[in-house]
Amino acid sequence: MKLVNRKNLIPVICITYTVVSVSLTIIETLIKREINVTQLNIFMFILLSILGVGVLSQHYRLERFSPLAMVIIQYFAAIVIILISLKVASYFTYVHPDGYKDMVISFSVPYFIGAVIYYISLILEVRKQNRILEKIKQDKE
Q: Which one-letter DSSP state was computed for residue 61?
């Protein structure tokens, strides 16, 4: 059985890269007992990725809204979480005055790219399932 094939090559590379880079960053941080800016960025990117995937995965809870409203609600929910997290973090460490704006921009660009890919994939999957259902109905008749 072939575990890696043409269909899953890119996701496997992405998952492997993420696991290796985050694991090495954690090990390096534990060994040196300090965190530098690069390591902090790696942790921030993984947290933002988790947030983005988490927010997008909740689309089924918002199905009663239009697709555009759904995307906007999800986006603003993620931004609120980011801003609240930054506010809490500001009590423990210095946050640059432009930090809030920079975080929103750093999250927004990849989020919208990911959201477009996610929703296009979702639409294609729904169409595929509808075709399968139609075929089943036709075969029954």
A: G
- For helices 37-56 and 99-140, what crossing angle results, to 10°? 40
C-alpha dist (Å) from residue 58 to 54, 75, 77, 85, 115: 7, 11, 11, 20, 12
Burial class (CB in 10 A: 0-12, 13-18, 19+), 18: middle
Secondary structure of residue 45 in the 3-state scheme:
helix
Give the DSSP H/E element, type plus range, for residue 94: none
Q: Which of 82, 76, 79, 46 is nearest to 62 (CA)?
A: 76
Query: pLDDT by residue (tens digit) across 65-103?
Result: 887 888 888 899 999 998 898 888 888 778 888 888 988
Cα dist from 101 to 48, 110, 121, whole Å? 15, 15, 30
- Render pLDDT for 97-133 as a digit per residue (tens, 0 to 9): 888 898 889 889 888 888 888 888 888 988 999 999 9
